[in-house]
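Hi all, posting the design record for the shared folder.

TITLE: backbone redesign
STEP: 1 of 1
STRUCTURE INPUT:
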């Protein structure tokens, strides 16, 4: 359980302290756009997790996820989103509420990816 909490904290810190960076163009004109970009970022992260951790259980995923290279791309994109959010005057609470509302639209084919989605929906990320 401690490992699961560690992963949740890690992913939360990455999102809050950083923002996106997978090379996709990130543009936003409103706080609603920021929410959409954030949800798309999470879907890309989940897709990467699905690809890299196809058949791992949650405990194995948590053990291995702390050294993920794909998190550096996620961090870059997260920083871009955070900068856009600040420029538009969007609050963290507003963005978090919007992401939580849309988290049900995220999809995954793996246990690890579904774990991340469940954490988002339950407010663990």
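Okay, here is what came back for every position:
SEQUENCE:
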């Amino acid at each position: 359980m401690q490992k699961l909490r560690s992963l949740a904290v890690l992913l939360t810190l990455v999102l809050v302290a950083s923002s996106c960076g997978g090379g996709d163009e990130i543009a936003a004109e409103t706080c609603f756009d920021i929410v959409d970009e954030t949800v798309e970022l999470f879907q890309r992260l989940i897709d990467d997790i699905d690809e890299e951790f196809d058949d791992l259980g949650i405990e194995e995923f948590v053990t291995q996820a702390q050294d993920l290279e794909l998190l550096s791309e996620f961090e870059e994109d997260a920083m871009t989103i955070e900068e856009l959010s600040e420029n538009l005057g969007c609050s963290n609470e507003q963005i978090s509420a919007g992401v939580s509302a849309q988290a049900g639209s995220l999809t995954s084919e793996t246990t690890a990816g579904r774990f991340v989605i469940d954490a988002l929906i339950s407010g663990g990320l």
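COMMENT: The chain has a mean pLDDT of 76.
Let me know if anyone wants the other runs.
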